[in-house]
């Protein structure tokens, strides 16, 4: 078959100066339309051969990030930590884990990224500290009722000698949410026991986090990703409900999740953010009902909140359309902008989700369990998964709003579902005795080279073992290949930056299982799910899969961008 390449080299985008967006240095609202690349530092690049990725490793890859064309980098935690939860157990929020580097390395990274107009966003983990944090150590050494204990959530137990926990609440990470300390009291931890929850009714906790935000902003950090932003405010007044009662409580009433008071915290943070020029940005990780998400994203709050709706949606045109419409409407109502995301360090990589048999919910426990048992079998259609992932990415990048990419997705990288049991690190795996397969499969260190030690990730090993098939997905294997996923991402990001588009989006009529949108300036984006469709008008800018010349038809599981203007 006569095939067009998946791009037309002569359909070059307009020069940067004519793009719709001001240059990175001058745009105060850059976050509205930014492409943000998430780095999970321990698994990105290792400079010293200890098998753990580090900040100098990231620094050495700044040219790669610049070539990719991202607007910002979001770093998952790099703070001192025992790694009980991959760094989300923070010992000291205003320092760097010595295995990952130094504060000088952060400064160097801000500067190096800045030379390419790339901003740095960091993760703030305000719901809990680690149990090694100086505050928690002080709390353990202090008596019940002391000021040191009041920075956390300590309670007496129930039953004879208080030997039973204050409530039977089950942690999503396995086990109970309460842990007993030697003097008999119990403390609350929504996640692992090494992550005691902080008491946000204590003004000292507020003040300390404001100092942390300023500390990083003063070093040149542009914004923050707020970990479990919906959990900070809690109502632990007696009597505590049972786990079963709590499960029936609606948002706003539930003692732990998505309480209205949480927005008072973010209103105060907003005043701090707005003291900076340009204002600091923030995006909340808030797993809440879609209609309650807007409050986190409001102008008087964090400004943006992750929309995980596409991440949990099936590969289906009606589902995608419903999610897109709802999120654009909500963003317009709050004055925020949408945050499109398909993968992150907590979920099964989307190239793999899209290769599961139809109807297997890849993000669910069921999906992960399926992968664990079938991951290596041919039933997982890896090729189809990548094909759909490429199509989905082009669709996301054509939408108004910002897009969050997770390291490795630009390589079409798959989940590693079959890690050896003794290599797994995730507390969700360890605390459930393996019942939950955990999140390690999307955190395996990146392959930079086709062969060699740790596929170029490190001169030593990799802290999670890489499978032999990683080499074929490596950066080296894809460099120079115009049809590679890496080439597609690079081209898509530069085209998006330069095509003239407004904030609006118009749906064009399309048959079932096809989505066709048009942006101002004649930019068309057409995605076929399980169907074929005619090419949209205009010249082809980019296609996620090869197109047949003679037919002007778009095959299934493909996204095409065209430009309909002279
Ligand atoms: C967030 C993080 C996740 C972490 C949890 C507890 O959901 O994304 O990785 O385990 O918070 O901090």
Topology:
Blueprint: E1 3-4, E2 35-39, H1 55-60, H2 62-68, E3 72-75, H3 103-115, E4 119-124, H4 134-141, E5 154-155, E6 178-180, E7 186-188, H5 203-217, E8 223-226, H6 243-247, H7 262-273, E9 281-284, H8 290-296, E10 303-305, H9 309-312, H10 317-334, E11 339-341, H11 350-353, H12 365-374, H13 382-397, E12 402-406, H14 427-430, H15 475-478, H16 485-498, E13 506-507, E14 514-519, E15 523-528, E16 533-534, E17 539-543, E18 547-548, E19 553-554, E20 558-563
Helix pairs in contact: 8-10, 13-16
Bound molecules: alpha-D-glucopyranose (GLC).
Alpha-D-glucopyranose (GLC) binds next to loops.
CATH superfamily of the domain at 27-129 and 203-320 and 331-348 and 402-424 and 437-487: Glycosidases
> Which band does the percent of strand residues land in?
5-15%
Give the terminus-to-terminus CA distance: 29 Å
Q: Could you say which small molecules are bound to this protein?
A: alpha-D-glucopyranose
Helicity, as a percent range: 25-40%
CATH topology of the domain at 27-129 and 203-320 and 331-348 and 402-424 and 437-487: TIM Barrel
For the CA atoms, what is the radius of gyration? 24 Å
The CATH architecture of the domain at 27-129 and 203-320 and 331-348 and 402-424 and 437-487 can be named as: Alpha-Beta Barrel
Overall 3D shape: globular
Q: Give the count of helical stretches.
A: 16
Structural class: alpha/beta
Which CATH class of the domain at 27-129 and 203-320 and 331-348 and 402-424 and 437-487? Alpha Beta
Kindly state the number of beta strands.
20
Strand order of the largest sheet: 10-9-8-4-3-2-12-11
Major β-sheet annotation: 8 strands, parallel
* Assembly type: single chain
